[in-house]
């Protein structure tokens, strides 16, 4: 049976736009054949290593988000990143305590926030939270911690408020032992991301918001290798003696 094709205008338009800009790029750069061959070999290594998602998360995703949301109302999105994991534990009781090991290393963190809509107040929003540990590692990936350590999901109250108890995340270095690291250093970049918390918000009738929270004073804010920092996502980390506190409010976009 002959397979017939049906044109997808979005796919065709994106491809034609890509080719148009690629031709301009090649005219500008004037690669010789050796340089092109080196690129093909590097891209092959990138694919074979399984690092395409990592490379795109670090060096491309932020430009996609800026192009789409730069002048949009509501909280600015930031990178989903390569360490998101579905089906994290459901936390039922506020304050929501992230799953942790006994004597989890790191400074204790109390984080408070509010979720609203561009249309006004918003109640009972689903929130997912994930972060690195005091060694800069993520559970389910490179950390020896149990799966879903420092990961959880919960629902805000009727006013959109929530409180999370966790630990303060630390800056960490993206993987550098493969093709992504090869490119990073060849381009003269460092490989560090500032300390951050990943948060994902979902509510019916609203666009899913995936963003991050950063802390004032972090040495890597200005040179985040992934370019994920947004000034509106910065908050102050206040020392309360036996723990630290931070707060930030979030606004979702109505569909």
Automatic annotation (TrEMBL):
Keyword Metal-binding: yes
Keyword terms: Dioxygenase, Iron, Metal-binding, Oxidoreductase
GO biological process: catechol-containing compound metabolic process
Ranges of residues in domain Catechol dioxygenase N-terminal: 8-68
InterPro entries: Catechol_dOase_N, Intradiol_dOase_C, Intradiol_dOase_core, Intradiol_RC_Dioxygenase
Pfam families on file: Dioxygenase_C (PF00775), Dioxygenase_N (PF04444)
Names of the cofactor(s): Fe(3+)
Listed Gene3D superfamilies: Aromatic compound dioxygenase
UniProt keyword Transport, yes or no: no
Record-annotated Intradiol ring-cleavage dioxygenases domain positions: 81-248
GO molecular function: catechol 1,2-dioxygenase activity; ferric iron binding
Similarity comment: Belongs to the intradiol ring-cleavage dioxygenase family.
UniProt cross-references to PANTHER family, sorted A to Z: DIOXYGENASE, PUTATIVE (AFU_ORTHOLOGUE AFUA_2G02910)-RELATED (PTHR33711), INTRADIOL RING-CLEAVAGE DIOXYGENASES DOMAIN-CONTAINING PROTEIN-RELATED (PTHR33711:SF7)
Protein name: Catechol 1,2-dioxygenase
Native source organism of the sequence: Planococcus citreus
């Amino acid at each position: 049976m002959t397979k017939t094709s049906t044109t997808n205008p979005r796919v065709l338009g994106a491809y034609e736009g890509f080719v148009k800009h690629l031709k301009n790029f090649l005219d500008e750069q004037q690669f010789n054949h050796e340089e092109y061959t080196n690129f093909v070999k590097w891209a092959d290594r990138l694919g074979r290593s399984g690092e395409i998602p990592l490379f795109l998360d670090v060096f491309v995703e932020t430009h996609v988000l800026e192009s789409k949301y730069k002048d949009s109302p509501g909280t600015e999105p930031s990178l989903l990143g390569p360490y998101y994991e579905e089906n994290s534990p459901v936390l039922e009781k506020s304050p929501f305590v992230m799953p942790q090991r006994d004597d989890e290393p790191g400074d204790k963190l109390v984080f408070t926030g509010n979720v609203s809509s561009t249309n006004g107040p918003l109640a009972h929003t689903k929130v997912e939270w994930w972060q690195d540990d005091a060694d800069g590692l993520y559970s389910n990936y490179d950390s020896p911690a149990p799966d879903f350590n420092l990961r959880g999901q919960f629902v805000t109250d009727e006013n959109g408020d929530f409180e999370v108890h966790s630990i303060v995340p630390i800056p960490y270095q993206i993987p550098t032992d493969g093709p992504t690291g090869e490119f990073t250093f060849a381009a003269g970049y460092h490989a560090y991301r500032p300390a951050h918390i990943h948060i994902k918000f979902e509510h019916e009738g609203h666009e899913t918001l995936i963003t991050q929270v950063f802390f004032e004073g972090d040495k890597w804010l200005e040179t985040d290798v992934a370019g994920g920092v947004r000034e509106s996502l910065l908050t102050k980390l206040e020392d309360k003696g036996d723990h630290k506190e931070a707060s930030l409010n979030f606004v979702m976009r109505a569909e």
